[in-house]
Automatic annotation (TrEMBL):
Species, as recorded: Teichococcus globiformis
Signal peptide span: none
InterPro entries: AB_hydrolase_fold, PHA/PHB_synthase, PHB_depo_C, PHB_depoly_PhaZ
Domain of life according to the entry: Bacteria
Domain called PHB de-polymerase C-terminal: residue spans: 203-403
Protein name as it appears in the record: Polyhydroxyalkanoate depolymerase
Pfam families xref list: PHB_depo_C (PF06850)
Amino acid sequence: MMYQLYQAQQDLLTPFRAFAKGTGAVLRQFDNGRPETFPLRHFTAALELLGSSGITHIRPSFGFTTVEIGNRDVTITEEPVFSTPFGTLLHFRKDMEVEQPKVLVVAPMSGHFATLLRGTVQELLPENDVYITDWTNARDVPVSAGRFGMDEFVDHVIRFQEEIGPGAHILAVCQPAVPVLAAVALMSEDRNPATPRSMVLMAGPIDTRQSPTKVNELANEHTIAWFRDNLVDTVPWRLKGGGRRVYPGALQITAFMSMNMNRHMNAHVEQFRNLVGGDSELADAHRRFYDEYLAVMDLPAEFYLETVESVFQKHDLALGRMTHRGRPVRPEAIERTFVLTVEGERDDICGIGQTSAALDLCSGLSTRMKRHHLQTGAGHYGVFSGRRWAREVYPRVRGLFEEASA
């Protein structure tokens, strides 16, 4: 019922937001910068804020067309390599003959599209042959496609890695750190030829008992039955995934924004000032962030509930109790894959020690094959996006790739 009401509201407000955005764009052309047009500028700024304030369910574009390598621009083509109803292995193919290290970037299935990692991919592109897990919005997946839980997530990681082939690397950002570590453990135990040479786990909840954050505490305030009864809903029948049980992305983004409501309100007030003052650079940066942040995807109910219960409430991987289709997951079976864990000093989503716990679980690796990096001054997103990611974190990722490939 909750989802039905939300969708009805979206259907009603979307045309008004589009009208406000379009009208603002037209009125902006009459602004000549003179004092007599200042009231028009205020009105135009208000229209733009209204037009861009809504949640969308459409995946934004990665927007990569070329990348500078050496002294020339190389064309990039987004090429789907392998697809299931729940996700696509997307390859950023370069028009060049030189071979580069292959790396699979595993994006979170946590309410945002894989394009949230645009900054991560952008930094990797010049020196690596990059693939990414482009997850499908669950509200667009027919019920006939079946379930998608933690087992299916691990299956996808293994299959995608096999499609890329031997000698590749894998990098997981946030939530998929757990299923990626499980997938690499299973592949290692099976001596799978496609087992990655190195694994990077960034700000992921391997052991949420360490430095618990507000997010971790919220996950333990209620039983799993409460989450199922209060946060899971049914996709309206008029949508492609009608009848599928999901954790709505709109509900998640509302919860996340409520945790930092003052910051988001101040950002929009500042955007109004940017628009009125004509600061196009800051205004564009605000647009880029919120166009991405407010583009949300629904999660399959099975995956959401299993993640809450297994990762945040029972700590199955950390306590050696995680299974994949009834088979024990043994991180100690990883013997040939280099591991790097990365955490942010100011991460308020994944606390210090939660990701580095993976190094102790990978007891079959020698010390020289395990390393950790704590990024000073970085919050959750700063670990994999922005200046600190580019200047301080990525060089360590590059070093790991080089050593593992040697």
